[in-house]
Amino acid sequence: MSTTEHPTATGARVGRPAFHAHAVMHCNLNTTDGERAAAFYMAAFGVEPRMRSVERQGDATPLGLQGAIASTTTFLYDRRGPRSAPALELVDWDVPATTPAWPGSVDSAFQAVGFRVPSLRHFQSRAVALGHPCTEVAGGLLARGRRVPALRTVDLDGVVVEVIESPPGPGDPQSDGVLAHERMVAVDLAETLAWYETIGWAVLSSGTESGVPWASLVLPDDPTFTLEFSQAPLSPGTPRNAVTRGLYRVALAVEDVREAASALRADGGCGEVPEPSFIPMVDTPTGGFTVLFLRDPNGAVVELVERPRGEMSRPTAP
Prior knowledge:
The structure is a single chain. The chain is mainly beta and 318 residues long. The protein has a single domain, classed as 2,3-Dihydroxybiphenyl 1,2-Dioxygenase, domain 1, CATH 3.10.180.10. 14% of the residues lie in helices and 42% in strands. The chain contains four helices and 19 strands. The strands form three sheets. The chain has a nine-stranded mixed β-sheet. Strand 8 and strand 9 (146-148) form a beta hairpin. The longest helix has 12 residues, at 34-45.
C-alpha cells in the first residue's frame, strides 16, 4: 500500500472562506422503522436521541419530492452532545413511505457508516447480547490513512456499519461508540477530491492499495470525522430519491448558506448550485434551518446547513 500523509489538513482555523464547511452536522439514514432503528444504535453504541421532529404537513420540494410529506426525524448523538459531535439522523418517512432502491436506480455512493469504539471485544459482546451478528474484517479497515482493527455488521435497514477500534480522544465517552466516518465510492477520485475541496474538505491522507486509489478527507475545523473514499465504478441508472432506504446524504455546517451558494456559483467547482431553502422544524429548539442541497460527482447528496462557528464547540483533535 502506497500512502501520502497530508499533515496540514488539520491546520489553523483562521483565514478560511466563510462558505467553507466547518463541521459535520449529521449523516442521514432513511429507515422503515424509526423506533427499532434508534433502539439498535442506542443499545449498540450508547448514542442518545437528543432531538426529534415530527412533520405532518411539510414541503420537501428542495429534496425533489412533490406534494405534502409526513415524516419523523430522530437525531442520535454520542455522549459528546450536539455542539461537539455529528449526529446519525434517522428519517422514518410516512408520506411518501421509505422505499427500497428500485430496479434501475444508480448504486449509492455511500457504502457504510462508521463508528469508533475503545474496545472491539466490548462492542462484540453488546452485539451478541442484541442477537446481532458481526464479523471481523480480515486485515482491518483503512481509516484516516491507516489499517485499524475492525468489525462489520448490518443494521435493521441493510446499512453496512463499520466499527473500528481506537483509543478515546479528548472528551470522548470511555466505553461507548463515536460516529467517526462514512465510507464512499468515487468514480473518478481526482474529480471527487476537487469537488469536496471546493466546499472546504482537505485531504488528510491518500494512496493506492492493490491498484485502487483511495483518500481520507477531513474538515480542518472538525478533525474527528472523515470521509473515506476509494475509486470504483457505480452502475448507471436513475438517481435515488430522498425517501430511498439507507444512507442518502451528509449535512455540513457553513456560516451563511446564501453566501455559500453565491460563492460556489462564482467558483463553478461544484457544478449546478440551486437556490437555498428554509426547512421549518417548529418542534425543535432551532425552529428550522436554511439549507442548500448539492450533488457530488457520484450523485451523493451533500447538504449545507446554516450554523455559525460560534454555535459549535468541535474538538481540535481526533
